[in-house]
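Lay summary. Proteins are chains of building blocks that fold into shapes, and those shapes determine what they do. In this project we predict the shape from the chain. Here is one chain we studied, written as its sequence of building blocks.
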Amino acid sequence: MENINPMWAPFIICFSAIFTNNILLSYFLGMCSFVSCSSEVKTAVGLGSAVVFVITVTVCLNWLAYEYILVPLQLESFKLILFIIIVATFVQFIEMVIERYSPSLYQSLGIFLPLITVNCAVLGVALFMVIRAYNFWETLGYGFGSGLGWMMAIVAMSGIRQKLSTSRIPVGLQGPGITLIIAGLMALAFIGFTGVL
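And here is the predicted shape, written in a compact code that computers can read:
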């Protein structure tokens, strides 16, 4: 990234977060809701949209809190606690909004909507943002790209699983077994994007 125009860095980071460094398929963060909520496309799109929104907004809020509260006060060691508080508060807000305006989506997501709070992908993006020392615009691009990559993976998985529901699968592979095999094959496919930029 040394010889790249800084103006393009957020877009390149966003593209990389979607394809080559997909938070789910490269780092396997957020697998619990990926396996559990990928049986229907509608549920996957709803949860994926919520994750995109939550990751994008919370990573920006976490960057602001880290840069303007923790660093000036030399309290960087408290970043994990602060990040979790920000994520939990924001997810609670999103849960109330979805329950109010889309009760059917709220019912279909069930327990996995509040579990976005403990989705390791959301916290992982915030921690990677600190480790990689991104500025605000790079953080925004990374957060949006990571959420979009996670959503793309779960929607693709739900489409595959719906097709598999009419297929003959050996009994030992039905359910999570075939889901994890497909996730591994998807991860191998995404490795093909490595070196594009």
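What the prediction tells us: The helical segments are 9-18, 31-36, 41-70, 79-101, 103-109, 120-131, 136-164, 176-191.
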